[in-house]
């Protein structure tokens, strides 16, 4: 049978049913999958130090045969595994303190590569940071130690050494099966090497830098495919149905600007210009407005809504919770008072008669601005003429829910809002099908938030401070990572601590909210906090996207090490919403987390924090399900590959502009690759 890239991996020599099953756990089903299963790191054994020349105080890489092994106890009761290595120059002892179990892995006769510092302990000794078995005692083809050794992602029942042997055994027959979809001119423009050599350099580099050349090519391809998917989605969203071409009449928008009780920031003015440009163009607007907590997204959205209103269209804003919808309703009512416009509010908790009356008014076209929750997307709601759909905290809604609101109109413009800043590289990857506007500047007059990291030893001082703030008429949040103690015995929990805090602060009213409470119970407590009848609100991160309580000045976060930096930033954004000085106190006794929490304390820029979070947690975790249309990035690194991403995005946009469905013969390979690789690929490219 002639081997092809889509041939099942079981047809390769050396892959029996058991091994095929293990490979499947790594996502390797075809021979092509094996070829693209690249090393996740390399051991540089190009500069191997002969054992006899390993000097005390040096950090070395050595290779030798294991001539003896044993476990020895020390006076302190620590058991040390030792192995003596031998090469042409002599012998050297290796010691692994506290790792006696290595006796089961490292055997006499094996060829071992070790890397680590050399010390003096009853003689010269290397303490390996890592080791790798290059060959078993009975291996005839002894690995050449003067190599860069690829280390592959492995799984139970299949070591990285076995994967390396399998790849090396078949690489020469697999590489000729690869065809490069990029023409030579395209490769030259983007400074890319050919695909075959790129794969060979990843699996058989002579120097670590060569492997990076190969990775760069695979990373570009990955980002390019993904940006083709995004560009196609964007093309369909904007061009498949003509949008509304609004006119800049400057009636209501100018009146609003003149009556605002504050000055717009430069970022807000720029965002309004970008959105107005989209809305007055013939294509549909599909824009994401990303702004840190307190940068004034709602006001920007209001200008867009008024532009629709002055063109005799309706505009709707949908929020994920009733409290947030009420808050938007109150904010818009206050700002629109000088214009004698009153937004209509539609909430699930209204009585049937109230809802029916609101629905009738919306259908008649009377209210030009509508604010609501999921209640807006029920079948019974019809708009007379919906021109703009604004979706707040868009990540809290599913794709279907967002689409349901948009479908209430005839190709209305769409503006998505999010208070979760993400790095530009991640925004282009996750939201490449949208135009993205960022708000980074904070309006003047917002109270500053001082952030401090404290240990449990400071608890009584912190409680004294909370007491003094509440006695002065202000309010405080106290956040816990878990709801009850059964979840994690070593963590303080919201329910038990709420009882304790109610006793500690008996002169104040303490409320409790968490994710397991019924929505109406939770909302009632949040409303009481908003109205200052609850002074201290004990909560889990359920309040991350919450209400605007200008009177709250203290945010105490217990076990701060349990939260991601972006999450901590969202929580901190609940305070500092009024003119009073506000404080965010992180309580943590974790020595490991101290540096990262201190870094958080030193900046209030959500975009900087997002970069720190990306660096710390990696993009896969941050990106969630939307990541690459369901395919996580394997070769690209969003921290370092932004120039590559920009190049891939530009090239993909140019290709889709000239050949939207990739129907030309020279683009067939791209189309085929995307349709097989991406969940959304088939759906996006099946139509011409």
Fold topology:
Layout: H1 17-25, H2 31-35, E1 41-44, E2 59-73, E3 79-87, E4 90-97, E5 111-120, E6 124-126, E7 130-135, E8 148-151, H3 160-174, H4 184-189, H5 195-203, H6 208-239, H7 252-259, H8 266-279, E9 286-291, H9 297-309, E10 314-318, H10 322-336, E11 344-346, H11 352-364, E12 369-372, E13 386-391, H12 399-406, E14 413-418, H13 424-430, E15 435-439, E16 449-454, H14 459-471, E17 475-479, H15 494-504, E18 510-513, H16 519-530, E19 536-539, E20 552-558, H17 565-572, E21 582-587, H18 594-601, H19 606-617, H20 619-623, H21 642-658, H22 668-677, H23 679-685
Parallel strand pairs: 4-6, 9-14, 9-15, 10-12, 10-13, 11-12, 13-14, 16-21, 17-19, 17-20, 18-19, 20-21
Antiparallel strand pairs: 1-8, 2-3, 2-5, 3-4, 5-6, 5-7
Keywords for this entry:
688 residues; alpha/beta; OB fold (Dihydrolipoamide Acetyltransferase, E2P); Rossmann fold; 7-stranded parallel sheet; 6-stranded parallel sheet; 18% strand; globular
Q: What's the CATH architecture name of the domain at 449-603?
A: 3-Layer(aba) Sandwich
End-to-end distance: 36 Å
Rg result: 31 Å
The assigned structural class equals alpha/beta
Largest sheet properties:
7 strands, parallel
Kindly identify the CATH topology of the domain at 449-603.
Answer: Rossmann fold
Low-confidence stretches: 620-630
Number of helices, where a helix is a run of at least 4 consecutive DSSP H or I residues: 23
| CATH class bucket of the domain at 449-603 | Alpha Beta
Q: How big a fraction of the residues is strand?
A: 15-25%
Q: Please count the beta strands (DSSP E, at least 2 residues each).
A: 21
**What's the name of the CATH homologous superfamily of the domain at 449-603?**
P-loop containing nucleotide triphosphate hydrolases
Helix content: 25-40%
**Strand line-up of the largest beta sheet:** 11-12-10-13-14-9-15
Mean pLDDT: 88
C-alpha geometry: globular
């Amino acid at each position: 049978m002639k081997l092809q890239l889509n041939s099942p991996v079981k047809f390769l020599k050396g892959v029996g049913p058991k091994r095929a099953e293990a490979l499947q756990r790594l996502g390797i089903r075809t021979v092509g999958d094996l070829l693209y299963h690249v090393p996740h790191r390399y051991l540089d054994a190009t500069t191997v130090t002969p054992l006899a020349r390993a000097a005390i105080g040096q950090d070395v890489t050595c290779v030798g045969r294991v001539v003896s092994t044993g476990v020895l106890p020390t006076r302190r009761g620590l058991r040390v595994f030792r192995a003596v290595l031998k090469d042409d120059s002599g012998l050297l002892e290796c010691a692994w303190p506290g790792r006696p179990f290595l006796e089961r892995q490292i055997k006499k006769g094996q060829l071992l590569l070790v890397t680590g510092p050399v010390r003096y302990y009853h003689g010269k000794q290397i303490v390996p940071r890592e080791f790798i078995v290059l060959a078993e005692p009975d291996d005839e083809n002894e690995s050449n130690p003067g190599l860069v050794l690829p280390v592959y992602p492995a799984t139970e029942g299949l070591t990285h050494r076995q994967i390396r042997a399998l790849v090396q055994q078949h690489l020469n027959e697999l590489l000729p099966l690869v065809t490069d979809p990029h023409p030579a001119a395209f490769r030259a423009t983007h400074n890319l090497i050919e695909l075959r050599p790129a794969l060979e350099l990843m699996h058989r580099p002579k120097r670590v830098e060569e492997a990076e050349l190969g990775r760069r090519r695979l990373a570009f391809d990955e980002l390019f495919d993904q940006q083709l998917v995004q560009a196609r989605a964007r093309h369909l969203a904007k061009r498949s149905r003509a949008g509304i071409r609004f006119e800049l009449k400057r009636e209501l928008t100018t009146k609003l600007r003149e009556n605002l009780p504050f000055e717009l920031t430069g970022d807000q003015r720029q965002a309004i210009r970008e959105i107005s440009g989209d809305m007055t163009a013939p294509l549909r607007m599909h824009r994401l407005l990303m702004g840190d907590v307190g940068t004034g997204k709602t006001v920007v959205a209001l200008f867009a809504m008024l532009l629709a209103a002055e063109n005799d269209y309706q505009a709707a804003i949908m929020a994920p919770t009733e409290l947030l919808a009420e808050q938007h309703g109150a904010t818009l009512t206050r700002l629109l008072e000088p214009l004698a416009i009153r937004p209509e509010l539609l909430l699930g908790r209204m009585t049937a008669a109230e809802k029916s009356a609101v629905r009738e008014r919306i259908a008649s076209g009377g209210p030009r601005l509508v604010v609501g929750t999921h209640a807006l997307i029920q079948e019974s709601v019809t708009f007379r003429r919906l021109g703009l759909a604004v979706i707040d905290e868009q990540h809290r809604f599913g794709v279907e829910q967002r689409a349901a609101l948009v479908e209430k109109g005839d190709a209305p413009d769409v503006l998505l809002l999010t208070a979760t800043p993400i790095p530009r590289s991640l925004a282009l990857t996750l939201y490449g099908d949208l135009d993205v506007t960022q708000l980074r500047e904070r309006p003047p007059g917002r109270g500053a938030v001082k952030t401090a990291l404290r240990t449990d030893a400071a608890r009584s001082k912190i409680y004294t401070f909370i007491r003094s703030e509440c006695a002065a008429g202000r309010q405080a949040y106290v956040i816990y990572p878990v709801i009850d103690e059964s979840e994690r015995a070593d963590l303080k929990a919201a329910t038990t601590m709420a009882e304790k805090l109610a006793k500690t602060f008996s002169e104040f009213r303490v409320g409790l909210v968490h994710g397991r409470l019924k929505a109406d119970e939770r909302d009632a407590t949040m409303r009481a906090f908003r109205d200052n009848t609850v002074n201290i609100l004990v909560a889990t991160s359920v309040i991350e996207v919450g209400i605007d309580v200008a009177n709250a000045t203290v945010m105490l976060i217990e076990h701060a090490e349990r939260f991601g930096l972006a999450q901590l930033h969202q929580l901190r954004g609940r305070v500092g919403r009024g003119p009073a000085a506000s404080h965010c106190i992180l309580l943590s006794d974790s020595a490991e987390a101290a540096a990262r929490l201190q870094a958080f304390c030193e900046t209030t820029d959500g975009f900087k924090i997002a970069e720190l979070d990306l660096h710390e947690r990696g993009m896969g975790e941050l990106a969630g399900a939307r990541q690459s249309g369901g395919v996580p990035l394997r070769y690209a690194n969003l921290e370092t590959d932004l120039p590559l991403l920009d190049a891939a995005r530009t090239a993909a946009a140019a290709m889709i502009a000239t050949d939207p469905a990739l129907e030309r013969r020279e683009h067939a390979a791209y189309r085929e690759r995307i349709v097989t690789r991406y969940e959304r690929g088939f759906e996006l490219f099946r139509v011409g």
